[in-house]
Each structure stands twice: as structure tokens, then as C-alpha cells.
Amino acid sequence: MADQEGERAFEGRLERLFAQAPAFGDAELFALRVSDRLDRGWTARGAAIGALGLVGGVVLVVQAGSNGAVARAESLSHNASAAIGRALDHVLPWHITLSGVPLAGEVVWIPVALAALALGYAISRAIREI
Q: Is the residue at 8 inside a domain?
């Protein structure tokens, strides 16, 4: 019976020892080094994603410029602004000529560029969370 009590006491002490992690003198340094390695990896990944995005953007601009997409978009923008101006001239009750309203390509492309930037930011944040 005394043998069983000694065995239980030993098992209890053994369980307590395994439940408590031993404190090492360099634990803070180790945690700092691991954190630095993780941060370094994300910095490199972010730089690689940015560089690849820049290369993709340059390829897009070259491809769009080489097949006349910019000229077609400009023509469509001019036609659309003229059509909107004519439609507004007929709809509004007062007689103000709106055909000179500047609805050029900038008005169309700036929101598209901002939406693309927002999408790129959202994708980069999603990748960072993975």
C-alpha cells in the first residue's frame, strides 16, 4: 500500500514537471529571432509580389498599346460622351447645352484604375493573411 502511494506521488510530480515548460535563459532572444525570420519572409514575399505586379502592368500597357486598344477606348469614350450629352439635352427641362461636358477618357479610366488598385490591395492583404 505504501508502495502504491509512493508511485502515485511520483506520477503526480512527473505530470507537474511535464505540464510546466522549463524556463531557458535565452527564451526572449529565441522568440525575437523567430519573429525576425517571419517578418523577413513577409518582406521578401511582398517585394516579389510587387515586382511581379509591376512586370504584369508593363506587359499590359505594351500589349494594349500595340493592338490599338487605347485608340479604340478613346473613340468609344468620345462617342459615349457625345451620346450622353445629347440624351441629357433632351431629358432636362431647361435649355442648357450639355454637349460640351468633358466626359473624356480620364473620367472613365481614373475610377477603373482606382478599382484596380483597390483590388490589388485586397489581394495583397489576403495573401498576407494566408
A: no
Residues 83-121 have pLDDT tens digits of 777 776 676 666 555 455 555 555 566 777 888 888 888
Q: CA 40, CA 104: separation in Å to the nearest integer?
A: 45
- Does a structural domain hold residue 3? no
Give first-to-last CA distance, the chain, whole Å. 56
Q: Which residues contact 127 (CB under 8 A, 6 or more apart)?
A: 45, 49
If we measure between CA atoms, which residue out of 87, 70, 80, 126 comes closest to residue 104? 80
Sign for the pseudo-dihedral over CA of 39, 42, 44, 47: negative
* 41 inside domain: no
**Grid coordinates given for 127:** 495573401
Number of domains in the chain: 1
Q: Which domain holds residue 70?
A: 48-130
Whether 68 maps to a domain, the answer reads: yes
| Chain-centre distance for alpha carbon 45 | 13
**pTM flag (> 0.70):** no
26 vs 122: CA distance, rounded Å: 38
Q: Give the three-state DSSP class for 79.
A: helix
